[in-house]
TrEMBL record:
Residues 1-22 form the signal peptide. Transmembrane segments: none annotated. This is Non-classical arabinogalactan protein 30. PANTHER family: OS01G0164025 PROTEIN, OS01G0164075 PROTEIN. Keywords: Signal. One of its GO terms (biological process) is root hair elongation. GO terms for cellular component: cell periphery; vesicle.
Length: 167
């Protein structure tokens, strides 16, 4: 192979390497969603007035709300979710938008409150984990990944109701 051909081939390889590094092939962008999970219990009569969940029972069908406010204290997101048979809720915040990366971040802007219990004998709100004013979210390094989906999952609570009549 002549020197001229070798130089041309080297130049062509360098050009291809430059083009490849300038425009790397990236996977399609997956939108990031936000979700909140937690548990709702019926607090044992012996523990009413404390933050203890000893002997507490999960409440199936309890309702909780997720409330997110902006830095001007205006409600920007509100939705009610229901617990499953194990008292677990998974609240995907569909439509929630962060207009400011810090002030509108879910850890700063969102809280979870118990709304109602389907149990007539256990339907009074407790302030367990600040449920009355809104339980803050916790970041626990948890993500859900799907084919064209990814969600940052935060935790809140656990939250609780307590019985009306305790002997």
């Amino acid at each position: 192979m002549s020197t001229k051909n070798l130089l041309s081939l080297s130049f062509l390889l360098l050009l291809l390497l430059h083009i490849a590094s300038a425009n790397p092939v990236r996977p399609p962008h997956k939108p990031l969603s936000v979700a909140v999970e937690g548990l709702v219990y019926c607090q044992n009569c012996k523990k009413v007035g404390t933050w203890s969940l000893t002997e507490a029972k999960p409440i199936s069908g309890a309702k909780i709300s997720v409330i997110c406010k902006n830095h001007n204290d205006q409600v920007k997101f509100y939705k009610v979710y229901q617990t499953n048979k194990d008292g677990y809720f998974y609240a995907e915040l569909v439509g929630y938008q962060m207009n400011h990366p810090v002030l509108d971040h879910p850890l700063q802007a969102c809280k979870v409150k118990p709304v109602s219990s389907p149990l007539s004998d256990c339907n009074l709100l407790t302030n367990l984990n600040y449920g009355l004013t809104g339980a803050p979210l916790r970041y626990e390094k948890k993500f859900v990944l799907g084919h064209n989906y990814r969600a940052a999952v935060y935790a809140a609570g656990p939250l609780a109701f307590h019985p009306q009549k305790c002997l």
